[in-house]
Amino acid sequence: MPTFTSLDVTDVRFPTSRTLDGSDAMNQDPDYSAAYLDLRTSSGESGASLVFTIGRGNDVQGEAIRALSHHLVGRDVDEVLAGIGRAGAAMIEDSQLRWLGPEKGVMQMAIGAVVNALWDLRCMREGKPLWLLLAELSPEELVELVDLRYLEDVMTREEALEILERSVPGRAERIARLREEGYPAYTTTPGWLGYTDEKMERLLREARDEGFDMVKLKVGGDPADDLRRFGIARKVLGEDFPIAADANQRWGVAEAVAAMEALAPASPYWIEEPTSPDDVLAHAEIRRRIAPIRVATGEHVHNRVMFKQLLQAQAVDVVQIDATRVGGVHENLAILLLAARFDVPVCPHAGGVGLCEMVQHLAMLDYVAISGTVQDRRIEYVDHLHEHFVEPAIIEAGRYRAPELPGAGARMLPDSLSTHRFPDGPVWRGLLR
Amino acid sequence: MPTFTSLDVTDVRFPTSRTLDGSDAMNQDPDYSAAYLDLRTSSGESGASLVFTIGRGNDVQGEAIRALSHHLVGRDVDEVLAGIGRAGAAMIEDSQLRWLGPEKGVMQMAIGAVVNALWDLRCMREGKPLWLLLAELSPEELVELVDLRYLEDVMTREEALEILERSVPGRAERIARLREEGYPAYTTTPGWLGYTDEKMERLLREARDEGFDMVKLKVGGDPADDLRRFGIARKVLGEDFPIAADANQRWGVAEAVAAMEALAPASPYWIEEPTSPDDVLAHAEIRRRIAPIRVATGEHVHNRVMFKQLLQAQAVDVVQIDATRVGGVHENLAILLLAARFDVPVCPHAGGVGLCEMVQHLAMLDYVAISGTVQDRRIEYVDHLHEHFVEPAIIEAGRYRAPELPGAGARMLPDSLSTHRFPDGPVWRGLLR
């Protein structure tokens, strides 16, 4: 009878600030990082997971994950995996840890990491990728995973079930289609603020030539510069190509409206994070005033209650889930259901370290078992750091190929972990010397 | 030229779960705790501060405070204290740490602890209690401390200045009056869910006899039980005595409305935290449906952007600031200004470890230099753990006496720190054996 033995966390960091990959209006010098969790058992099996961060504080995130050890260590693996929804809920309800959120920030991401590691372990045992394992659960089994507290004013258990039941017919067909055609993607690779015009132009051409049918550029620096960069992109890609803009929370309401009026001639496909991710009412006001430009947000939205309000207030046209921001698979399932309930498309945030690898499972679950469509939906893609994963995200002709290896996507190569361990791995020993 | 030398954090915990002090509908077994910060300098001066938690995770909170060391260690103390607003803003804007919030949870509370420790140090140097030091700053100096990003749709810099300037006349008179009469308080001491009826009844009598003119009871357990306990309180205190109810986030919208309809015959003075602290729209809906019962919230509201929305949406009748939940003095100043802008009274949350000692300074600042009134305002009081502080909060005839020692209120006695240090202080060595 195997038991959980430890929550081993490795502080993994990549020195990306040296190249300005990932630079935007609010995050000038990210070192893409992961608090990497290896959830170990007495049988030698393990569940892998991570929380993405951008450098400093990755150690704090690791401590937060370790602080959940008492929920699992010593417990029977079979029993926990059989009641995986309950195991996640118990961490959310931990009456002492709850004070540190509640349900937000470092502790919520830590809970998400543990939930995701449990699913990874379950996937390994059942020999399936996460998207498929979840998509084959019954509507009842899926709803059991969701914490409906604070959601029932917009979605009861019955309504959630109804959404899932509606998509049961056609699941097999969509699974086959997904495996054949993949899931649509868009790329942010060309769009970082720190790149020169020449580099951006070259990367835009490459993106189009590789088959992407949508790109995203960072904005929120100097408005004239934003418009100029959009102009270059329009010249390369043409008038009708969807080019989204991402302000990374740079503005207040008035600034956002002014900036989007200035950028309107370049027809941005959407404006992402125009203001604080906490500001539901400001998103709603901005959306109203810049229509028909669409508003997207989500990568920093900290839980299902905030997504609920963004949808209630008609504040967003696009919901951007993130694999490691909220309380894991269970909370993201709640958010996917809310989006379906309000008929708003989900276009997941990705990039970073492992976010593409992880979040693709959730988008594919959405297609097979929740919304039942890929209409207006694309997963973000950024072309770096994939080589460190056991099963890297694969893009073919601008689409994510469905992952087939067992797992939830976060498992990294042992050599990558040891090489980039902070501060004592060889990469950092060299840089910090 | 003194410099900062370290951010020393002590994990202090009190085994309060043994007595059910502090028990409520969501927090059944708190061990009142503090991540206690001693901000040390090369001259031997220090700034004291803390983040209140309820047990597990207090170590994670401590790690988060230590993660801010690079912002201060090695820097010139005089220079930092002269630009204390800028020092706080730099931590909020730390582009890598920001990812862990942004502006919420463990990292925001850590920033608050450092900001508050800087003010404590400045108070020690100037020989003044925090409330007085702040209340003697000019409107311009106060506004310089506030981060107006994301607030300007409801309050511009000019509007904030105007609020402060309006209260400049009469400051000296209010300071004198505060020192003479103190600041109104209410007590939660009798109202914890874990107490027997007999204990509650005795404590209610004592509260009235001590001069309190308002009390608060925890609710959110069994509705019949809530009504019964309110009935006991009404019998002891009479029909017109303000008795507030605190649900500690227990309900969704429908449950909150039903529970308050059931409790309405007992005329609760307000309902506190009827639902998730993140749910602005639910608070607004509940308030609309249970009027004229008032709605209060704030002890878990994680930043000024959330308070702004609660006020914009007319979701609250009472703003409850907390000394250690948000980004310290600076963010609480923003919240006090927002409340004044919307003409909503502030009744601070207190209790825990050191919250009474700390938050009284902010309420007194509000009286002297912001709202200019104590009308409908009271600071919460709970009667435990005060003996561990250098200057314990003092209640006389149901009012907080204005603190007079230099400092921001969080400084604990060295013996209390060493005795309750977790897990190796003598109190815990005994209990954990």
UniProtKB/TrEMBL annotation, chains A, B:
Supply the EC number(s): 4.2.1.68
InterPro entries for this protein:
Enolase-like_C_sf, Enolase-like_N, Enolase_C-like, L-fuconate_dehydratase, Mandel_Rmase/mucon_lact_enz_CS, Mandelate_racemase_C, Mandelate_racemase_N_dom, RHMD-like
Pinpoint the Mandelate racemase/muconate lactonizing enzyme C-terminal domain residues: 197-293
| Keywords from the UniProt entry | Lyase, Magnesium, Metal-binding
Position of the signal peptide = none
List, alphabetically, the Pfam families matched.
Answer: MR_MLE_C (PF13378), MR_MLE_N (PF02746)
The question of whether Metal-binding is a record keyword is answered with yes
Q: Which reaction does it catalyse?
A: L-fuconate = 2-dehydro-3-deoxy-L-fuconate + H2O
Any keyword DNA repair? no
Identify the cofactor(s): Mg(2+)
Q: Which PANTHER family match?
A: ENOLASE SUPERFAMILY, MANDELATE RACEMASE (PTHR13794), MITOCHONDRIAL ENOLASE SUPERFAMILY MEMBER 1 (PTHR13794:SF58)
Protein's recorded name = L-fuconate dehydratase
Name its species.
Answer: Brachybacterium rhamnosum
What is the taxonomic lineage of the source species? Bacteria, Bacillati, Actinomycetota, Actinomycetes, Micrococcales
